[in-house]
Design brief:
single chain; 406 residues; alpha+beta; 4-stranded antiparallel sheet; two-stranded antiparallel ribbon; 9 helices; 11% strand
Length: 406
């Protein structure tokens, strides 16, 4: 791949990013450029019939055709809509100042191409492409050229006509031929030109004559001509200032576009260089946040793992007994809990004995004997409670003797 093709593809890849199906647009456009070297891409503003404007990709240049055994170049411009390939491309024939559009079933007076391939595009868009469209336009234009040469108002005297150039050279049959170079005084001026090199794509393409007008047939170039090719090409350039002006204008526009692109690229480069420190600082901050998050995640993983181990251990031990739920951390504390429980039980027993005496269920002698025994036992338990509490450190004291037990 040459350097120019690589630059064209890079430009094309950058300018199709605004299309929803940019990969498909790039592939189809690149295939057209590879198949037709006289077609070039550009971006320009397209104005729709309803007045809307949109920046679209345009493929413009010369489309070579063969009509009645002769080769011609048709200037065209194909606009690729944003909805491609669901919407068909907008194909136009762009006549030059010495051409006229030939209206017909596949061409309107404005130059809009309306061939059958475009009419059937929306019905079978999945099977259509730009390459097939260019081939269909080539086939349609070869059957009926969309433009013809503008008739001249001033008739020129009949002069010997030069030979028809090759497929990429302009047709000079509608104008007087350039004067032939004279090498010697005795040279006969009937020596014919050697076919000149092909003009640039901006030059006027060869056109067939309008039906009904007279046209001079092609004259085969003489092999015995002794005129050198560079001198003939110089005469062609001298007699065709329009070609030079077209080349100059195209070079000027191309230089201006390249200068704008270079300026835009330099601005992008400056923005990227200026944003590099900020990007590095942001990366450093994000790396610090990442390290903190990793540390927190590691600690959380440890806590979760410890919790899972505790849950597994509790499940292994099973449900505890009811009596084991109320227990203390030491034997002394457990003894204290039991003493307090027994003291309360004795207190409740004496209360119920008193109620039984009042109800007449027990006699007074039995009540006194039982109450005296329970009171002695309660006294001993309360004394032991006081002793245990006296031995407990002050900070660990979680229970105190009720005031009625003192």
């Amino acid at each position: 791949m040459s350097k120019s093709e690589s630059l064209t593809q890079k430009w094309l890849r950058q300018n199709v990013q605004t299309y929803p199906n940019n990969d498909l647009v790039y592939a189809h456009t690149d295939a057209v450029l590879a198949r037709h070297p006289t077609i070039r891409p550009k971006t320009d503003v397209y104005t729709y019939d309803d007045g809307r404007t949109q920046l679209l990709l345009c493929l413009h240049g010369l489309l070579p055709i063969v009509f009645r055994g002769a080769s011609y170049n048709i200037p065209i411009a194909v606009w690729v809509p944003r909805e491609y390939p669901r919407s068909p491309p907008l194909a136009y024939v762009v006549p030059t100042s010495d051409m006229l559009v030939r209206p017909g079933p596949g061409m309107d007076t404005s130059g809009r191409c309306l061939i059958d391939y475009l009419r059937n595009w929306e019905r079978k868009c999945e099977g259509c492409s730009l390459v097939a469209l260019f081939d269909a336009m080539q086939d349609a234009f070869s059957r009926q050229p969309p433009v013809y040469a503008k008739p001249k108002d001033v008739t020129t005297p009949q002069q010997p006509q030069p030979s028809r150039p090759s497929s990429s050279a302009p047709d000079y049959s509608a104008r007087p031929p350039p004067p032939l170079p004279q090498r010697h005084p005795s040279t006969e001026p009937t020596v014919q030109h050697t076919p000149s090199p092909a003009p640039p794509p901006n030059g006027p393409p060869p056109l067939p004559a309008k039906p009904g007008s007279s046209a001079t047939g092609p004259i085969a170039p003489s092999r015995s001509a002794s005129v050198p090719v560079p001198q003939a090409a110089a005469n062609v350039r001298a007699d065709n200032p329009a070609i030079l002006s077209n080349i100059s204008s195209e070079l000027a526009s191309l230089s201006q576009a390249m200068a704008l692109d270079a300026e835009r690229l330099r601005a992008n480069q400056a923005d990227l260089l200026a944003g590099e420190p900020a990007i590095r600082d942001e990366m450093a901050r994000l790396e610090a946040v990442r390290d903190v998050c990793r540390g927190v995640a590691a600690r959380l993983e440890q806590v979760v793992a410890a919790g899972e181990r505790n849950v597994a251990e509790l499940r292994r031990k099973g449900d505890p007994e009811v009596d084991e739920l109320v227990c203390s951390t030491t034997i002394v504390y457990n003894q204290l809990v039991n003493l307090v429980a027994e003291d309360n039980a004795i207190e409740d027993t004496i209360y119920h004995l008193h109620r039984a005496l009042n109800a007449g269920r027990i006699d007074l002698e039995r009540f006194l004997r039982t109450t005296r025994m329970l009171a002695e036992e309660q006294f001993m338990k309360r004394a032991l409670i006081e002793k245990i509490q006296a031995g407990i450190p002050l900070g660990d004291s979680t229970w105190s003797v009720p005031s009625d037990m003192r």
